[in-house]
Amino acid sequence: MITMYTTSWCPDCHAAKTALTRKGLQYQEVNIEQDEDAAKYVMSVNGGKRSVPTLQYGEHAASLSGFRPAKLDAFLTQAGLAQG
What is the pTM of this model? Predict the structure, then answer.
């Protein structure tokens, strides 16, 4: 399952959640404001930045900050989750 690291105030997070739902992909959401270990993980994969949304699937992780559907599609392809 995809893990999406978010904050409560992030408009890109809301857009990414909507896009994943429209694609029929399940995800679990982890709010980095409430989970310090999650915040550390996000910073470890984003050059020290608390960049959200960050998606993780297996060994693949990527920030989708500045969300665009093409960024999501690139992540899904890299993670082997691209549809049809």
Answer: 0.94
